[in-house]
Design goal:
Blueprint lengths: L11 H7 L8 E3 L12 E7 L5 H12 L2 E4 H12 L7 H10 L6 H13 L5 E5 L5 H4 L3 H4 L2 H11 L4 E7 L15 H8 L14 H27 L3 E6 L6 H11 L11 E5 L15 E5 H4 L7 H15 L5 E5 L15 E8 L19 E8 L4 E5 L4 H11 L11
Parallel strand pairs: 2-4, 2-5, 3-4, 5-6, 7-9, 7-12, 8-9
Antiparallel strand pairs: 1-6, 10-11, 11-12
């Protein structure tokens, strides 16, 4: 699952060296950045492709600094049904419609909805993620063909933007050139043979996954480039270089906001770790991470219940019974992979190899009995908690749980 465990037999020096403060990240702050003292709303944009930890940064802005996140997916899934006379309801139906009709979306309309949401909100701080992560949205012609400068100028007449945060993954250089093109044949061969030491995403990614990743990176740059160009022209970009396996991206962004005068408003959300069986948690010191271990089979007695009912019951249990600052380890021993009913898909997905210390700050004051680097998928919500899915937890099921776990609605026509 990870590297060899470090137990009490490890000497204190080696343990301290392993968890010493990481080297500072390179940060470039544009001279045109607006501090926001005289602004009614504090608005920032955020840009970051695969491997940038954008989702974790957004979660930090929400829980620690009281930002409200606005994503392009949020806007589309919330307001597009009304725009098309409620002809679609579910996320799947919306994506199918976008594939059939690329003229349905426009950047103008998206910004008008963002303006409406800000104008009717009681919040003062907003972080806007304008680059879609869903293919059916990102491939819409409007994101490539629109006059982004005009759209942003119109938006800023009412809501000035303080700055844009760019999480620049430095190791993309090994995969893409500066124009966002796919790597050459020789570069692909070098990556396949393991000769590229700067490959962020590991040598074990097969050709299919590598191709998908390359397309995601290319699409991200294609869409984000005109937006970043707009903010660069006014020198309002805060660019943070994100090297391979960086562990201090979130803390770096937080430090920048504190330097800009932002005060902390909320405590971090809960961390919930999911595994398929008890063995998945063998390398975790529960007391050290203030974590309670529970089983889905103990929460939902009806083992043939739908996935909707199971996940909603689990969410209600944790919300009702979890103590302040308590984290959870969940054994999904009776999980049923059924079709789910949902309307939105507002979360951020990252694949990572990390220590739990990087996610859980409210740890015990003693040294852990065991501490290893875990391979896992992370899903952060724009609303609440960080969900970690340990190695071998199926990705498609993790995404379903991520969608359902933060859905405020009760399961329709289900009893758990």
């Amino acid at each position: 699952m990870g590297c060899a465990p470090s137990g009490q037999q490890d000497n204190a020096r080696s343990l301290d060296e392993r968890f010493a403060a990481p080297p500072p990240l390179h940060v470039k702050i544009g001279t045109g950045v607006i501090r926001g003292d005289d602004l009614q709303h504090h608005i920032i944009f955020i840009f970051g492709g695969p491997g940038s930890q954008k989702g974790l940064v957004i979660e930090e802005l929400i829980h620690r600094f009281g930002f409200q996140a606005i994503t392009v997916e949020d806007i589309i899934f919330s307001y597009l049904p009304s725009k098309v006379a409620n002809a679609v309801e579910t996320t799947a139906e919306i994506q199918k419609m976008l594939k059939r009709d690329t003229g349905t979306l426009s950047v103008d309309w998206i910004f008008s909805m963002i303006s409406a949401k800000i104008g009717t909100s009681s919040h003062q701080r907003f972080v806007i993620d304008i680059v879609p992560s869903i293919n059916s949205i990102s491939r819409a012609d409007s994101f490539v063909d629109s006059n982004h400068e005009r759209c942003l100028e119109n938006f800023e007449r009412r809501f000035p933007v303080m700055f844009a945060v760019e999480l620049d993954v430095s190791d993309e250089v090994a995969m893409l050139d500066r124009n966002g093109n796919l790597p050459t044949k020789s570069e692909k061969e070098a990556m396949k043979n393991g000769n590229n030491q700067n490959n962020t995403y590991g040598k074990d990614i097969d050709a299919t996954d590598r191709g998908k990743l390359e397309k995601r990176i290319q699409q991200h740059h294609l869409i984000s480039r005109p937006f970043l160009r707009y903010f660069s022209n006014s020198k309002r970009v805060v660019r943070i270089t994100v090297p391979e396996a960086a562990t201090n991206v979130v803390s770096t962004v937080a430090s920048i906001l504190v330097d800009f005068g932002f005060t902390e408003q909320r405590k971090p959300g809960r961390v919930i770790v999911f595994g398929t069986d008890d063995e998945a948690f063998d390398d975790i010191d529960f007391d050290y991470y203030k974590m309670r271990k529970i089983r889905l089979s103990d929460i939902v007695k009806q083992h043939n219940a739908s996935m909707n009912a199971q996940v909603h019951a689990l969410y209600r249990y944790i919300s009702k019974n979890g103590a302040p600052g308590e984290n959870f380890a969940v054994v999904m021993d009776t999980m049923n992979n059924t079709e789910i009913n949902h309307r939105r898909s507002i979360h951020f997905y990252e694949e990572t190899s990390a220590y739990l210390d990087e996610f859980i700050k409210n740890r015990a004051s003693r040294r852990p009995l065991i501490r290893v680097r875990l391979t896992m998928n992370t899903i952060t919500s724009t609303h609440r908690d960080t969900l970690l899915f340990l190695e071998n937890f199926p990705r498609n099921l993790a995404l379903k749980v991520g969608v359902l776990f933060n859905d405020d609605r009760p399961p329709p026509d289900e009893n758990s």
